[in-house]
Each structure stands twice: as C-alpha cells, then as structure tokens.
Amino acid sequence: MNKNKDKKLNWYDITLSQFKELKAVLEIEDDLEKIISLAELVLGDSVTELPLQEFNEQIKRLEFLKSEIPTSVPPKHIEVKGKKYDVTSLLGNISTAQYIDFMKYAEDNDTAKMLSVFVVPEGHKYNDGYDIFEVIKDMEDLPIPVANSITSFFTAQLARFIEIFRSSSIKKVKRSKTLSKEEKMRIIKLIQNSVDLVSYPIS
Fold first, then answer.
1. Which tens digits make up the pLDDT trace of 44-100?
2. Which of 86, 84, 80, 89 is nearest to 155 (CA)?
3. Measuring CA to CA, which residue among 83, 145, 153, 143 is closest to residue 118?
C-alpha cells in the first residue's frame, strides 16, 4: 500500500503505466470488483488485508479519480527515476526524424513511445548516444498529467498546422486560373478528406 496511507492522493500520483491499467479496470461491470481492483492498483495489493472500516477509509483517497486530469504547459525539463531529461514539444523545434517517429507511434496510440520523441536525456540529441528503449520504459513512470500535457500540447499544434495547411491549400486551388471548376472541386475534396503530413515539410 502507499507508504503514507494518510497522504491525500491526486492525479500526479498516477503513472502512465498505472493509467493504462486504470482504463481497463474502469471497464469492469461488477461495482465491488471494480472498487477492489482500483484500490489494489492505486493503493497496493495489501489494502484488501485491512479491516473493513480502515479499507473504507482508504477508499476515500480515490475520490480524485472522479475529477479531470489537470493539464498545463509542458515543462522544459523533467526528472524520472533520478534521470534528467530535456523536453522539446514545440512543432517548429523537432527534427524530421522526430516528426516521422511521432506519426508512426501516434498510429499505434503508444503514448510512452510518443513521449520518447519529445523527451531526450539531458545533453543528448534525439536517438543519438543513448538507449531509446530505456527512455520509453522510463516514460511509463511519468505522472499522467505531465505525460498528457506533453503529448496534448504537441497534438494541438499539429491539429492547428493541419487546419492552416488545408485552408491555405484550398485557397490556392480556388485562386488558380488554369484549373477548371470541376478540377478545382476534385482537388479541394482530396485536400479536405486526406492530407498526408509526412509528404510535406514543416516550416
């Protein structure tokens, strides 16, 4: 169980790894089984060995799970397992390799791998001179609010970029004097329905 059983818990006490398990636990239909599974996941397996009254008191520490996960601007530096990392989540500051890897990991919906694109050991460049699999493993221990802030911040920038790119491309097509009306409509529909960002450089 949590070493300090009187400590008030919040989302920063939940790691990315635990959050993945948490989502599975919340799918359990039986309420009692769900409560016990949540308690064991967050408070530790030994929580079920407590007297019933004390168990019920400990369950109150899980109230924060009903609240939204807090979000904030991503930090520039983080520390995980005593290791220092630099965070680069600005769209214009990442390399082509980082961008391509992010798109690949995003398709797989692998948050730890997505984070490894932006979180690099202090003093290193992306995927140069360090074990990236060790970084991915460390990301599993990142508090979920921090993990969410980094990935959400970048994803929001990317969504904005896509919208700007689509809008700009459509305007260019509409202004064209060489394309027929039918051809313009065909191209605009293609732009609206499928924009492969990997095919275009980010400026």
1. 888 888 899 999 899 999 999 989 998 888 889 999 999 999 998 777 778 888 888
2. 89
3. 153
Sorting pLDDT into bands at 50, 70 and 90, what band is 146?
Answer: very high
- What is the distance between the alpha carbons of residues 196 and 126, in angstroms, rounded to a whole number? 24
Instruction: Supply φ then ψ for residue 34, to 5 degrees.
Output: -65, -45
Neighbours of 201 (CB within 10 A): 8
- Segment (H or E) for 78: strand 77-80
- Reported as a pLDDT band with limits 50, 70 and 90, residue 201 is very low
> Nearest 5°: phi and psi at 48?
-75, -10
